[in-house]
Amino acid sequence: MIKAVVTGAAGRMGSRIINVLSTSEGIRLSAAVERKGHPLIGQDPCGVAGLPSGGVLTVVTDDLAAALKGGDVLIDFTAPEASLEHIRICAEHKRPVVVGSTGFSKEQLEQVRIYTQTIPCVLSPNMSIGVNLCFKVLAEVAKTLGDDYDIEVIEAHHRMKKDAPSGTAVKMAQVLAQAVDRNLDEVGVYARKGMIGERSKKEIGIQTVRAGDIVGEHTVMFAGKGERIEITHRAHSRDTFAAGAVRAAKWVVGKKPGLYDMQDVLGLK
User: Fold this and answer.
1) CATH code, domain with 209
2) Which of 3, 136, 161, 255 is catalytic?
3) Mean pLDDT over residues 44-49, rounded?
């Protein structure tokens, strides 16, 4: 039985991961971790996860290092700064980690690569199986259509999301740019306003919507003369991300050190 430690246990994703772990085979929750000073410290994590009280033999702690001593893998959905520190602690204790946080800077990602020289880490902006299948499909569509179709990525999330565009939208744009042999840093367009002139043939638009409680929607539009192809993924529940994270946690245990993503977990590479 794999023992999983969950950070951000009281958060939107952490609570759903704990819930999914309660019904998953071959893996269980061994520790729930929150930041120092959080009101849930010392409390039963079941309540926030919508589970019966006493359903797990642990309380929420703020000591990740101690929690890892009794765990086999960490599942982390927090924020880039916190996740980077959590990966460092995992490297120190030689524990694999699954990270679903988004918004990492290039410098932070370089630090992640350094830490993952000694431990395996699954880092993905989206743990959904459906989204990761979309990554593969989008690359094939873009290669086939080439430069004859304009490419736009439109994403929508809840009003509380802090980073924009979403990590998933950025990953989609990266996949698309690579498929048509473009540099996203050069052709990515993230906002349009005023007299912007004619759209360039090479640009890839990445547009953001923030509203209400939208879990996550991503649409890629391929627009050509006389027709338009749209590929859309809509997440109806955070459980789809939680289930993917748990699947990744089961997969990463025992893997060689290195940086992996959900394409590796799902065998799509």
Assistant:
1) 3.30.360.10
2) 161
3) 81
The two structure tokens encoding residue 198:
């004619």
pLDDT-above-90 percentage for the chain: 91
- pLDDT per residue as tens digits for the range 174-208: 999 999 999 999 999 999 999 999 999 999 999 99
What Å distances lie between residue 34 and 53, 117, 198, CA to CA? 18, 26, 49
Percentage of the chain lying above the pLDDT 70 cut: 99
Active-site residue, 86 included: no
Full residue range of the structural domain in which residue 51 is found: 2-123+238-265
Which pair of tokens denotes residue 250? Answer: 């089961």
Higher-pLDDT residue of 259 and 55 is 259
Task: Single out the catalytic residue among 157, 171, 233, 250.
Answer: 157
Co-location of 119 and 6 in the same domain: yes
pTM of the model: 0.85
Cα(166)–Cα(100) distance, rounded to whole angstroms? Answer: 12
Cβ neighbours of 112 (radius 10 Å) = 21
Q: Name the nearest CA neighbour of 188 among 143, 200, 157, 224.
A: 200
Q: Is 36 a catalytic residue?
A: no
Same domain? For 256 and 219 the reply is: no
Tell me the C-alpha distance between 199 and 223, whole Å: 12
Question: What distance lies between CA 35 and its chain's CA centroid?
Answer: 20
What's the number of domains the chain is made of?
A: 2
Q: Residue 244: give its domain's CATH number.
A: 3.40.50.720
> Are 113 and 244 part of one and the same domain?
yes
